[in-house]
Automatic annotation (TrEMBL):
It comes from the Bacteria. Its EC number is 2.1.1.80. GO terms for molecular function: protein-glutamate O-methyltransferase activity. Methylation of the membrane-bound methyl-accepting chemotaxis proteins (MCP) to form gamma-glutamyl methyl ester residues in MCP. It holds the Pfam family CheR. Residues 24-295 form the CheR-type methyltransferase domain. It catalyses: L-glutamyl-[protein] + S-adenosyl-L-methionine = [protein]-L-glutamate 5-O-methyl ester + S-adenosyl-L-homocysteine. Keywords: Methyltransferase, S-adenosyl-L-methionine, Transferase. The keyword Transferase applies. SMART domains: MeTrc. This is Chemotaxis protein methyltransferase.
């Protein structure tokens, strides 16, 4: 791993501290059942995310600091605030706070083995286009990019497009700076070849190298209304996001992403997510890995 760094980890640290600011117990506002119901409807409208009743304390905990920042007397006032057309920025802030963004490098490593096999089986293919469709803070997109770099080289033409609905995580993804604790799952050779280790005041942090970052782009997209500018992809990672939606909405999203997948291309979902029967042209290759096979798509076996 290169020992150079021009990152702004101090900025990162202060951001992380800010996001974990807590409100003391004596200042806590209580969230009634009816107010929780309104937040649930609001979040469903914004992002299609379904909140179960047990998420009441999560909603209350995550939004307390916004009431304090805006000096509002309670959650009812915050709900009114969110309805004001000019308050788009606050709607995005609330959405950012209410999505769950857990992720890590090389999560569910069978998918990265699958990717390696896929690349090896189609050596003649140029210009691979891969979509990390619920990218969170970028670890998935960079894991894909490191796998492509190792298999195809840094100078070949390939691109990873990473999207999410949450702008806070997308900013973190674009900075590409992570704590060394997060590096544990990155294979040693890739860490050495593609990451830069922080020194001095940046010790304890690493940054994804520029030669990898230049192959990865980030943009905001709601999976219910995918950006029309997105290209068609060879492979789509749609992992650990369907769990937040109801059955009919899962199908809608799978159909939306399939419009962006080349015939013969593959779709990967999280290991605990099943999309069996969601689309007649989806053929399961192995658990959580599907081939999109509308008639007469030419493809090779992996
Ligand atoms: C748990 S993370 C999964 C991250 C990564 N795919 C992985 O498997 O590690 C789920 C991500 O989905 C995003 N998300 C939730 N609803 C979305 C929507 N309607 N459109 C786009 N992204 C959404 C969240 O913001 C969050 O970052």
């Amino acid at each position: 791993m290169t020992m150079i760094l021009n990152m702004r980890s101090s900025e990162m640290r202060s951001l992380e501290t800010r996001s974990s600011e807590t409100v003391s117990n004596s200042q806590l506002h209580s969230l009634s059942k009816a107010e929780f119901g309104q937040f649930r409807d609001w979040l469903y409208q914004q992002a299609g995310i379904h909140l179960a009743d047990v998420k009441c304390s999560m909603v209350s905990g995550r939004l307390q600091k916004r009431l304090h920042a805006l000096q509002l007397p309670g959650f009812a006032a915050y709900l009114d605030y969110l309805k004001v057309p000019a308050h788009q920025q606050e709607r995005q802030t609330a959405l950012n706070l209410l999505t769950t963004n857990e992720t890590y490098f090389f999560r569910e490593d069978k998918h990265f083995q699958f990717l390696q096999k896929l690349l090896a089986a189609q050596p003649q293919q140029q210009n691979w286009q891969i979509w990390s469709a619920a990218a969170s803070s970028g670890q998935e997109a960079y894991s894909i990019a490191m796998t492509l770099a190792q298999q195809l080289g840094l100078n070949s033409r390939w691109q990873v497009s990473a999207t999410d609905i949450n702008t806070t995580v997308l900013e973190k993804a674009q900075r590409a700076i992570y704590s060394m604790d997060e590096a544990v799952k990155i294979p040693e050779t890739m860490l050495k070849a593609y990451c830069e280790k922080g020194v001095g005041k940046d010790a304890g942090w690493f940054r994804i190298g520029q030669h990898i970052r230049q192959h990865v782009s980030f943009s905001i997209t709601n999976l219910f209304k995918p950006d029309k500018q997105l290209p068609v992809f060879d492979l789509i990672f749609l992992r650990n996001v369907l769990i937040y939606f109801e059955a009919e909405d899962k199908k809608l999203i799978v159909n939306n992403v399939l419009r962006q997948l080349k015939p013969g291309g593959c779709l990967l979902v999280g290991h605990s997510e099943s999309i069996h029967g969601y689309h007649p042209a989806l053929v399961q290759l192995q658990p959580s890995c599907y081939r999109y096979s509308p008639e007469s798509s030419g493809y090779v076996t992996i």
